[in-house]
Predict the structure.
Amino acid sequence: VAAPNKVTTLNLSGKYVMNKTLSNLPMDEILSLQGVSWIKRKAISAAGSPTIVLNHIKDSNERIEINTSLPGVSSAQNKDKAETRKLDWVETKIETPLFGVDMIKFRRVSNNKEEWDKLDVDQSLKTGWTEDRLENGVIQTEMRSDKASGGKGWTNVQIWGFEIINGERRHTRHVQFTGPGGEFIKGKLVYDYGKPNSFFFNGRERVTYTHIIAVYS
């Protein structure tokens, strides 16, 4: 499903389902380098496509609320677990079940040519975007394992934006991954777009996820 033109990096609010057919990032290889066991990798591979709901808040403190769900996990288990990421390029320590303690940071990269030229990423992360990138910029994320807490020493850099895939406008994330031994992997994640459900919390609209796939238990 194509993303409408009104959805841009200035307002990413919406529901995105990863399209495994159009995506080309070798997730199993990356997970292996991140230290994820073979059994867990096979379970992840066998699961359905993850769904990500974003609530993009634009005020004096721009931030994105992220709620990720997998088939087989009910919405009741997920709706209160949104993670908030400030676009301030300040590292935040997080703890995940798969990777342990990690460091993560987000920012907006503007359309300023000097800032764009200084962006220290592989050229594949800078190309392919729709023309609104020139007006709105893109979102950059960086996540790395925390060696001080026993991490493996990997880094995952992503650029979020929109591009035309098979004639349709899609939300994509261009990725470069550097493994603990210097392994370098690049690729992209491509998403189908869907309008999210919403509810009001403390007088402000927030986004939650309702499963469209039957939950088996």
